Amino acid sequence: LASKLGKIGDSTRSLLMEDKALVAAEIELRNSFAFFSQEAVKTQNEMLKTTALVQKAGMSAQTTAENYDFFTKALGMSGEEAEEATRGLLDLSRDVGQSPEKVASDFSQAKNFISTYGRDGRVQFIKMTAISGRLGVNINKIMSSMDSMDTISGASETSAKLNAVLNLNPADRLSAAMLNQAKGAEKFMMIANAIGNSKVDLATSRGRLREAARATKLSESDILKIQKLKKDKDGDLEKFVQDLVEKQKDGTTTA
Q1: Quick one: pLDDT at residue 253?
Q2: Which residues of the chain fall below pLDDT 70?
Q3: Whole-model pTM?
Q4: Rounded to 5 degrees, what angle do the CA atoms 84, 88, 90 make?
């Protein structure tokens, strides 16, 4: 093991032969990533390096190993793709101004949500993280609030309540069918747009604010954050989310 880690360390300027991060990476990958030993030696080495490097940036080896396992098992990624996706999480944390461990941990906790969308689940997570980072709303709360709209009855109830509470113009009204069919992040953007299009000042209409929070399963403070952002920077949230997705698609830049 020492010889193997030494060779890997020698080929990576950022790591020293005796670096403890490599040892921790080896242990966690073997404990938490079921397919690690089945990967080609070259891929194992790259995974070891990436795990050690992102650990130096603040992403724990255990969380990284668990995410590798999820990438390959649930999303059908190759080892190389899983390693690249992990570096993508580090880049994402920098882009949204959150700690690497928080983003990686959020990803790990969002596995059920991500699995729903297969390979597109990673893009959905990027969008949700962008929304969370810009609004300062907990990502798990966002995902949980959207779950209630995954059925036509839930989407119908939410849209009907919001259309009434927000006193929306006919052109801005939420469609229950479209809300139900939309994916998680797109659902949230539809809700955010409805709140932003409302002429009702929810900050001074406490009863309507309370009803909007109940309808969306978000907190009153979250609703106010959304309305303020949409009023101050119309279209900014959509652009921020899309730019971040495109940046991730273009490839990662982590050293």
Answers
A1: 44
A2: 1-19, 233-235, 250-255
A3: 0.77
A4: 120
